[in-house]
Amino acid sequence: MLDQSFYQKTDEIIAHYGKKASSLIPIMQDIQGEYRYLPGELLTYVAKEIGVKEAKAYSVATFYENFSFEPKGKYVIKVCDGTACHVRKSAPILEALFKELGLSQKKHTTDDMLFTVETVSCLGACGLAPTLTVNNEVHPTMSPEKALELVAELRGAGV
Ligand code: FES
Asked: Where does [2Fe-2S] cluster bind (predicted)?
């Protein structure tokens, strides 16, 4: 059950874009921008409010990879595992982050909601491989050591 404040915020977002089907994507983007994920309950609520079938809203949300139904951490780290990065040893970077944060391919977010670690297929910065992003900011030529330093810095900033 979501807190009432989630619905109040969602009402504001809906009012901003208007109760019409074409508002669906911008509303979902704003909700995700606010909470760093798209709670399923809110998607159901939005669909009803703007007159879109719930199944349609879900299919749109799942079509766009950018929408997430899972809560994410304050810092979303995406480790590139595209070919260029893989060749330049992105796997040990991912392993180091998983080990440091107690995460795995099945558990992506730390219990304190500070970090989410995911992989992506290419960040479009292959010349700087191996790369990772933190909340969409690119960090070039990474190593396991540099990744751990980055986590330590973010921990410092996040407390
Ligand atoms: S393969 Fe990693 S940035 Fe392209």
From this structure: 80, 85, 122, 126
